[in-house]
Design brief:
There is one protein chain. This protein has four helices and five strands. It is an alpha+beta fold and about 140 residues long. A three-stranded antiparallel sheet has the order 2-1-3. Strands 4-5 form a two-stranded parallel sheet.
């Protein structure tokens, strides 16, 4: 799985996850990489610092705060999550198995969502299965 910081021609910044660099290039060429704020397909990779793996086994999570469009981005992620969960089949912990069946055309293509272990995610990436993480957006507490 590869993570890119992306920016559209209207300077909206957002993140994208792809199975590999070729998957990003193919999706961009097909017009599938869109800005979640304005929906333009005029999107490019933003300059970003490389990720450096820790050697002490400590796991890190990418976080953000203070972006001027925080609320808009949060609402877009929530809308994406709601769209997927309302239109796709929940397969629970069988996600990796079902995604692989769809990828290898063993079953009819359909939208699915569920959970997978880190090992299952790594194996899906290695097999070239195209998927994306489902945004985790907690309820806002005012």
């Amino acid at each position: 799985m590869i993570h890119y910081s992306l920016v559209c021609d209207k300077s909206h910044k957002f993140d994208g996850w792809f199975s590999n660099a070729a998957a990003y290039d193919a999706q961009k060429l097909r017009g599938l990489v869109t800005c979640p704020i304005c929906l333009t397909t005029a999107v490019d990779k933003a300059i970003m610092a490389p990720a450096v793996n820790r050697t002490d086994g400590t796991e890190k999570v990418s976080l953000s705060i203070g972006h001027p469009q925080h609320q808009q981005l949060r609402e877009a992620m929530l809308a994406l999550r709601n769209k997927v969960t309302s239109e796709a089949d929940y397969v629970g912990d069988r996600f990796a198995e079902e995604a692989r069946k769809i990828h290898f055309k063993e079953v009819d293509a359909r939208g699915i969502y569920g959970e997978a272990t880190k090992e299952e995610v790594a194996a899906l990436v290695e097999d070239g299965v195209d998927f994306m993480p489902l945004p985790s957006v907690k309820e806002e507490h005012n």
